[in-house]
Amino acid sequence: MARGLFVTGTDTGVGKTVVSAALLLRYRSRFALRYWKPIQTGIEQDDDTADVRRLATCEPHEVREDGVRLRRPVSPHLAARLANVRIDLDAIDTLGPPRASAGWVVEGAGGVLVPINEAALMIDLMTRLDLPVVVVARSTLGTINHTLLTLEALRSRGLRVAGVVMVGEPDVDNRVAIESYGRTSVLAELPRLNPLTPASLEAWATASLDPGDHLMGLLE
Predict the structure, then answer these.
(1) Burial grade of 74 (CB within 10 A; 0-12, 13-18, 19 or more)
(2) Average pLDDT for consecutive 10-residue bins of the chain (220 residues)?
(3) Which candidate in 16, 26, 28, 37 is catalytic?
(4) Which of 33, 41, 99, 120 could form a disulfide with 79 if both were Cys (CB 3.0 to 4.6 A apart)?
(5) Is 37 a catalytic residue?
C-alpha cells in the first residue's frame, strides 16, 4: 500500500495546489516525498504540477508528470468528452502511486463528488488509492456546510480524514464549528500570501502547518 496523503477540496480553486506544495515544503526534509496530480483539466491555462514544482522548488524526481491531462478548464468528465476521450480509472490505478519507499502527496481535481466519467466520481479514485485525506476549505461564509458535507462523503466511503486546512482570512468561529461538528482537526489556517513565493510559502509551512505533527505517522 502506498503511503502519503490525498489533498482534496470543498470546491475548485480553493487552494489545493498551494497546500500540496506546502506539505512538501513542511515534510520533505524528514521523508522522501513525491507529488502527483492524476487528473488535471484546463492544462493550457493552469498547470498545477508546474505550480507545485515552482512553489516547492522541487527536483525533477519529486514530481510525477504522467496522468490525464485535458485542455478545457471544466469538470473532468466534460473535459474528456470535449476531447473525445474517456477517463479510465483502471488505467489511473495502474499508473500509481507506486507502492515504494517514497511518500506521496496526491492532489485531486475539484471536490470529492466531481464526475470523472459517466459513472465514476473523484471519490471513487480516492477510494482506490486509499490514502488519508487532507481537506482544503475556505475560511469564509458557507465553509461550515461545504466542509461538513465533504467530511461526511469521505467517511461514508470509509476514507480516513487526516484533517482540514482552511484558506483565507482566519475565522475562529468557523474553525471551531468545523472541528466540533466535523469531529476533525484543523491542521492550519493559510492566509492569502502576498506575494505567494517559494520563500513565503515555506516560511508559513514551517511555522504554521500541522504544528502538532499529526501527519507524521501518515507519511513516514
Answers:
(1) middle
(2) 89 95 95 94 91 96 93 95 95 74 89 96 96 97 97 98 97 98 98 96 98 88
(3) 37
(4) 41
(5) yes
